[in-house]
UniProtKB/TrEMBL annotation:
This is Dioxygenase. It comes from the Bacteria. GO terms for molecular function: dioxygenase activity; oxidoreductase activity, acting on the CH-OH group of donors, NAD or NADP as acceptor. Pfam families: Mannitol_dh (PF01232), Mannitol_dh_C (PF08125). Residues 29-274 form the Mannitol dehydrogenase N-terminal domain. One of its GO terms (biological process) is mannitol metabolic process. Gene3D superfamilies: N-(1-d-carboxylethyl)-l-norvaline Dehydrogenase, domain 2 (1.10.1040.10), NAD(P)-binding Rossmann-like Domain (3.40.50.720). Residues 283-475 form the Mannitol dehydrogenase C-terminal domain. Keywords: Dioxygenase, NAD, Oxidoreductase. InterPro entries: 6-PGluconate_DH-like_C_sf, 6PGD_dom2, Mannitol_DH, Mannitol_DH/Oxidoreductase, Mannitol_DH_C, Mannitol_DH_CS, Mannitol_DH_N, NAD(P)-bd_dom_sf. The keyword Nucleus does not apply. It comes from Aurantiacibacter gangjinensis.
Length: 491
């Protein structure tokens, strides 16, 4: 087996784009969470930047959990393939912007030293929603989280993303090195603000003077990221190997669409990302809401209802009876809660989303999107429902149906009675809520709504909402998710 690496780059098919720049240059970026999304998104923008001759913007990657990514990438000198798929078409790019990947748990202080290196001007993060250790309902740092408590007890050996940021910034302050900019690239509303709050809360708990310095000196711009990146399968790796003779364990597959909107607020050198298609703006929040409520909101609805109905992939769910009608209704509800943005055309955006969701070449698994729902649904659905209710528009039926789907998903069984794992940090809580209700559907709904870390206090007290939700939940229970969606009547 021949691995993709600098020495085997010549074996890559001639039509593939390969790095045309000297890769032996400083890492201006340190990235936390070098998973598939980072590789198909931010790493491709930095690859374009380096290709355009902007030196010093290689990425030093870090995995905060498993060593798997380093085993995939380090033997390949950080190189990896991006397959861009659209229906029957495929484009191949070899990306060279990642220099190496460190494994934080193996040597936390090595990562802290890397964060303190003066070449690093920017720290980017894709650690998923749960990686910030926030309370999903309030967005504040969860001080009861084990990792956070560990960081407070021993910040020299951090475990969490906020912990590494605090330790890295502390090391820079101590060495008299200017701080890096912290750029969150996760699907959270106000991701920069939330990251800042989390870092400040943690810093206050370990060293108040450091917290003041961070408050005064460090920029935490918000950003909106968008590209659909399904998890790579063994089959993808095997197919690439049989076509090229090269094994690429770090290969990622994605769609042609990509978008990155970044708030123009940097405290250290700013990479000229605007030259490679990044939208620099001062109104990221509006873009973020559009993306979370329309794209991610619909994605999660397709994941739970589609997953319950037995659809493995998003494009299959989109083609099943009633699903695209439900998605359109969900978009109507979500759109009603958004304020207009200059240069944003909701009709085109929705049409483009519908097309992206039907890209069958992506094979985007509903179960992948269903992961970590407790961390996702507050910003994807619940804030939308609240805004809709506050504007006196009645009860948003499609969002409520989606939420009823999420509730059924927690039982770990689909319409056909096949079991699935509820992959979620709060899975034990949702399971206990269902168990306690002993099969009484009204109580199941009430118990799940009682998990305030997800639902807060106001929504569970909203009677009209609870009544509609209970009806939707019962209708799925009495028939099936497939039927409930097929017969979903657009109000
Ligand atoms: C998806 C996202 O897995 C999920 O929750 O909704 O990863 C989605 O594909 C991206 O946000 C698209 O930009």
């Amino acid at each position: 087996m021949t691995r993709l690496a600098s020495s085997t780059l010549t074996m890559v098919p001639p039509e593939a784009r390969t790095p045309c720049y000297d890769r032996a240059q400083p890492c201006g970026v340190l990235h936390l969470g070098t998973g598939a999304f980072h590789r198909a998104h931010q790493a491709t923008y930095f690859d374009a930047l380096l290709s355009a001759g902007h030196n010093g913007w290689m990425i030093c990657g870090a995995s905060l959990r498993s060593p798997a990514v380093s085993r995939q990438m380090n033997p390949q000198d950080g190189l990896f393939t991006v397959l861009i798929r659209d229906g029957g078409e495929e484009q191949v790019e070899i990306v060279g912007s990642v220099a190496e990947v460190m494994v934080a748990p193996e040597n936390p202080s090595a990562l802290v030293s890397a964060l303190a290196h003066s070449d690093v001007a920017l720290v980017t993060l894709t650690v998923t929603e749960k990686g910030y250790c926030l309370d999903p309902a309030t967005g504040a740092l969860n001080l009861d989280d084990e990792g956070v408590a560990g960081d407070i007890a021993d910040i020299a050996s951090p475990q969490t993303a906020p912990g590494f940021l605090v330790a890295g910034l502390a090391a820079r302050k101590a060495a008299g090195i200017a701080p890096f900019t912290v750029l969150s690239c996760d699907n959270l509303p106000d991701n920069g603000k939330r990251t800042r709050e989390a870092v400040l809360t943690l810093a206050r708990a370990v060293d108040p003077a450091l917290a003041t310095w961070i408050e005064d000196e460090v920029a935490f711009p918000c950003s909106m990221v968008d590209r659909i990146v399904p998890a790579t399968t063994e089959e993808d790796l095997d197919n690439f190997e049989s076509a090229t003779g090269l094994r690429d364990e770090a290969l990622v597959k994605t769609e042609p669409f990509t978008q990155w909107v970044v708030e123009d607020d940097f405290c250290n050198r700013r990479p000229p990302l605007d030259e490679v298609g990044v939208q620099m703006t001062n109104d990221v929040a509006s873009w973020e809401l559009v993306k979370l409520r329309l794209l991610n909101g619909a994605h999660s609805a397709l994941a739970y209802l589609g997953g319950l109905a037995g659809h493995h992939y998003v494009h299959q769910a989109m083609a099943a009876p009633g699903f695209s009608r439900l998605v359109e209704a969900l978009w109507d509800e979500a759109e009603a809660t958004l304020k207009p943005i200059d240069g944003f055309d909701a009709k085109n955006y929705r049409a483009q989303l519908a097309q992206r969701f039907t890209n069958s070449a992506l094979e985007h698994r509903t179960h992948q999107i269903a992961m970590d729902g407790s961390q996702k649904i507050p910003q994807r659905w619940l804030n939308t429902i609240r805004a809709y209710r506050e504007a006196d528009r009645g009860v948003p039926k499609a969002l409520v149906m989606a939420l009823a789907g999420w509730m059924h998903w927690q039982a770990g069984k689909n319409d056909a009675g096949e079991t699935h794992i509820v992959d979620d940090p709060l899975a034990a809580r949702t399971a206990a809520a269902l168990r306690e209700a002993a099969g009484d559907r009204m109580r199941e709904v009430a118990n799940l709504l009682g998990i305030s870390a997800i639902f807060g206090e106001a929504l569970p007290a909203d009677n009209a909402f609870v009544q509609h939700l209970t009806e939707a939940y019962c209708s799925i229970g009495e028939t099936s998710a497939a039927d409930a969606v097929a017969t979903f009547a657009v109000p």
